[in-house]
Structure formats: C-alpha cells, structure tokens
Known about the structure:
Blueprint: E1 2-4, E2 10-11, H1 12-20, H2 27-34, H3 38-41, E3 46-47, E4 52-54
Antiparallel strand pairs: 1-4, 2-3
Amino acid sequence: MSYVVAFGGERLDRIAKKLMQTERQGTVEALLDANEGLATAAVSGLVPAGTVIRVPRDWSPPAPGSPTVLPWE
C-alpha cells in the first residue's frame, strides 16, 4: 500500500495515524525504515506534497492494549 502526501505537506506522525491507526508503538519508525530518504525529505517537520510513502508489508495493527490513564484521573 502506498500513500501520496496531499497539497501543502503533512507531518509524518499524522500520516502514521491516518495509515496505521496510531502514531505510537513504532509506526513512525516503521514508515521511516520502509521509505529511504524520507527523514531528509521532510522540511520544517513536514513531508512535502507529492511524496509517495510506502506502508511496510510486514506491519500489522497493534493489538488492543490497556486503556490510557491520564495523570489527573
């Protein structure tokens, strides 16, 4: 599966959230590993528009874990 970054650019963590349902649990790192040069292509934290990002084939969605506990709860 691949994804083309929209006009204006996007942050890599938001791309991970959109494609992999989370920006945590190593998803951003998995995208960087699968896309050589992606880290250097980002300008001011944004991946440029038109960049094609490949989602790693061996990646699978994270298993449901324990709920997040907020410090003020």
